[in-house]
Amino acid sequence: MEKMEQALAKEGYQVLNLNYPSRKQSIHELSDFVSEKVAPHAARASKVHFVTHSMGGIIVRHLQKNQPVKNLGRVVMLSPPNKGSEVVDKIGCYKLVKWVNGPAGGELGTGEKATPLVLGPVNFELGIITGDRSINWINSSMIPGKDDGKVSVESAKVEGMKAFQVVHATHPMIMKKKKVIADVVTFLKEGRFQK
User: Cα–Cα distance between 129 and 80 in angstroms, integer?
Assistant: First the structure.
């Protein structure tokens, strides 16, 4: 997310580009971790915006449901598995996949008890950008419809979102596209994507 960080800083935002132990903790634990890191910055800010990638969007949804940032502004999620991932359903039980994805990754299935579905609709101003280009044919063979190699276009959506857009990008590279960066900036400023 360095390119995104630089672009947002250039626009005048104070940016906290937060790394978290995504392969070692549950979504609940990661939400606590993010809350602890964000709290001192939120206390000094008039508004706190989030720009997330993939599971980061689920962490923000968990955070806002359980320990909300009171001065939350706008949120942009890039390729979030808001309705879960069919890939987790199909191969998430294998040891190697569990090791790679960690506890939080195992929570991202599509079943009714999967964390993304338990969280319910969003109640904050949210824009979602997802991709429809895959270079991972193995994963894509498990995902119905258009996808970015990890998340289907349909699975990125969540009830309550304000704006939704599909770009020709892969899951690991979506945050580097100039158009995506420009759309993130526009949504944070105006609550809409560029036309």
Answer: 8
